[in-house]
Amino acid sequence: AWQGLINSIDLSTGWNPPEGYIASANNVPYKGKPPVGFFFQSNDRIQRLKEVLENRVGIDLEFLKRLQRDVFSNGAVELRDYLVPVIIEAGLADSPDIKNLLNRLEAWDGNYLADSSGAAAFQVLLAKLTPIFYRPHWGEELAGSFLNRPGLERTLLKDMEAAPIEDVLRALAE
User: Is 0.90 surpassed by the pTM of this model?
Assistant: First the structure.
């Protein structure tokens, strides 16, 4: 399908968007012809930037500094908010270790700060749970590759919500 080179003028562009700004955070770019790629990072970061900027009436240097240091993840919070009640309702919170994990997850504010035990607990859970959940459908090797997928939190959440609850409980129990 490759028929030669194109220049930057022929790439997709965006002008004067309704939001009043154009932002980039390694997110999926404007879609157009020709496509500039097929695999991108998730849109979590760009969605977070838009959320913070949405009702902002002025931007100063201090605000921009804070925005650059913002480490909140909506996708992680959404997955956490799905998993915690499932773990509790399934009666999987019997051991002290699981109770400790749940306490850390429930107290976590969704920010990936360096000293956040909740963020660390969530990442350990994600690293263990993802290959276990996908293994029956994709096999050992491919299931492990999901850990490298951009937007893993939202993909796992969508797949778990669509799966029979028995599959989710099996993975959590393991």
Answer: no
